[in-house]
Amino acid sequence: MLKIAVLALVFVISVVGGNISLRFIPVSFNQAIGATTPFFTAMLSLVILRKRETVEVYMTLIPVVVGIVLASNSEPLFNIYGFIACFIATFARALKSVLQGLLLTNETEKMDSLNLLLFMSPFALVFSAFIMERNAWTAVTNNCEKSYAFTITLALNCLIAYLVNLSNFLVTKCTSPLTLQVLGNAKGAVAVIISILIFRNPVSIAGMIGYTITIFGVVFYSEAKKRSGLKNQAK
Q1: Is residue 98 within 8 Å of residue 177, measured between CB atoms?
Q2: Of 39, 97, 116, 156, which one's alpha carbon is 20 to 30 angstroms from that of 213?
């Protein structure tokens, strides 16, 4: 239970940090920073899980980091508080993936994806609603009374969040924490494009180049990971 509580706390920090960052930086920049999660996941997997990838896989993470550094230096709406909050959220997201991988793949723990989500949720609720944001329940109740649309939107958001976390646990159990984060970057690339179209936030040419480099790094990683898997099967 202590391990699950730690996992829930890290999860809440990743969500809260991401939400705080969105108050100061645009969604596109938030997603670009989040694209560096595979780098932190690879390092944490090496330190915590003792899981070593091939040199080729580690090399493909370089453009992921270089791209985001370039995008950060040329971001027109750069804000240091938003950047720090997003950086903390990104590191926490990587740590969460590694910790959940540790619980789901350890035979002595005997945890499956649905049970882990079931036991983690109450801890996450306590950390987020009763400790970090005590007025949340009052705000939700008032908004639900004023608007049925808010109630429906909130319920839909809860359903999507449940499916997202369940699928995250399933992917982690079947593949690896690093693969989960790299796959998630495909969502990030789409979110960058959509956010620019919706919010019309300015993006410099250098920033777009940085985003592109990061996306290509993700593609190169996928290919390197595939070749690494084929080699292991051959052995």
Answers
A1: yes
A2: 97
Task: Output the pTM of the full model.
Answer: 0.73
Q: How confident is the model at residue 87 (pLDDT cuts 50, 70, 90)?
A: very high
List, for residues 159-197, the tens digit of each pLDDT value.
Answer: 988 888 888 778 877 777 666 666 666 666 667 677 777
Q: How many residues does the chain have?
A: 235
Q: Which two tokens stand for residue 128?
A: 């987020």
Provide the 10 A C-beta neighbour count for residue 195.
18
Q: Is 216 helix (H, G, I), strand (E, B) or coil?
A: helix
Radius of gyration for the alpha carbons in the chain, expressed in angstroms and rounded:
19
- Contact residues for 175 (Cβ-Cβ < 8 A; gap 6+): none
Cα 111 versus chain centre, distance: 22
What tokens does 96 get? 């969460």
Give the other-Cβ count within 10 Å of 160's Cβ.
10
Other C-beta atoms closer than 10 Å to the C-beta of 234 total 6
